[in-house]
Design a protein that fits this description.
Layout (H helix, E strand, L loop, with lengths): L3 E5 L6 E5 L14 E6 H6 L2 H57 L1
Antiparallel strand pairs: 1-2, 1-3
This protein binds zinc ion (ZN).
Zinc ion binds next to loops.
């Protein structure tokens, strides 16, 4: 039993015990369970309040990760636009300087 770990469904918050390093799904939600990184013994030793706190903590961390992922995607879009306008700016400077040279003759 020592090689079993506690897993949790991120949707319905139900907990399960499975062998370590398994990708398992919640039978109800059909979604990958999260490894709670805690052994069955440690989990059973927690009080209901501590279990609740552990679940909340895990959900908070997950929300944070999703949030960071969204920021990262947005930054990527912004940097793409910065590169686009940067190239446009350089091209317009070249065009303007060519025109200025031409009119000076
Ligand atoms: Zn579920």
């Amino acid at each position: 039993m020592a090689d079993q770990e506690k897993y949790i469904c991120p949707v319905c918050n139900k907990t399960f015990k499975y062998s370590k390093n398994l990708t398992v799904q919640c039978p109800q939600c059909k979604i990958d369970l999260l490894d709670m990184d805690i052994s069955i013994e440690d989990w059973e030793a927690l009080s209901p309040k501590e279990k609740r706190a552990k679940i909340d903590d895990l959900n908070a961390r997950r929300t944070e990760l999703l949030y960071l992922d969204r920021i990262h995607k947005r930054l990527r879009t912004i940097s793409r636009w910065v590169v686009f306008f940067g190239v446009l700016f350089v091209i317009s400077i070249i065009v303007v300087s060519f025109n200025t040279c031409g009119s000076m003759k």
